[in-house]
Design goal:
Strand content: 15-25%
CATH superfamily: NADH Oxidase
Strand order of the largest sheet: 1-2-4-3
Structural class: alpha+beta
Number of domains: 1
Mean pLDDT: 97
Order of helices and strands: HHEHEHEHHE
Low-confidence stretches: none
CATH topology: NADH Oxidase
Distance between the termini: 26 Å
CATH class: Alpha Beta
Length: 174
């Protein structure tokens, strides 16, 4: 089977990570895959923050848990790396473009032997002054909204098996 199609069929969301930091080169390759996602009118109206600093990761974890309404848990399942995809709020397809970035990065992580899971609430996190300040500190200007957090790392244990695909979800119009 084609390796890309195989990766699509075998990638799973991972909910238990080892604390070991993946190699920087692998993180960069995953981000690069996201940069090559399709985008409306080729605008590339998304950015990715690579959070590898443990203190910053833990502050983001706390903000995410608070937004979830479950303080004191780790919604990132112990992953040492969080890739945050943000969209330019002024561009009309950027929410969809950001979703494609997330998908490309999840597939790239799987192809490189790493696990990942899309964690929501990036929108709520980056509405907070602390995270708006981080963007400003990084020199990022404009109106940016969170699309998703990609928790990334080495898989702890065995990856889950795929659930059976539901019937009745495809219709051909010939």
């Amino acid at each position: 089977m084609n390796p890309i199609l195989e990766a699509m069929k075998t990638r799973r969301s991972i909910r238990k990570f080892k604390p070991d930091m993946p190699e920087r080169e692998a993180i960069e390759q995953i981000i690069e895959a996201g940069r090559y996602a399709a985008s409306g009118k080729g605008a590339q109206a998304t950015i990715t923050l690579a959070i590898t600093n443990k203190e910053t990761r833990d502050r983001l974890m706390t903000a995410n848990a608070r937004a979830l309404g479950h303080e004191g848990i780790d919604p990132f399942y112990g992953a040492p790396v969080i890739l945050v995809v943000l969209r330019d709020k002024s561009f009309f397809t950027s929410i969809y473009d950001g979703s494609l970035v997330m998908g490309n990065m999840m597939l790239a992580a799987h192809a490189l032997g790493l696990g990942s899971i899309w964690i929501h609430r990036a929108k709520e996190e980056f509405e907070q002054p602390e995270w708006q300040a981080l963007l400003k500190d990084l020199g990022i200007e404009g109106e940016w909204e969170g699309v998703g957090n990609l928790a990334l790392g080495y898989i702890e244990g065995e990856p889950p098996k795929a659930a059976p695909r539901k019937d009745g979800r495809v219709f051909f119009v010939d």
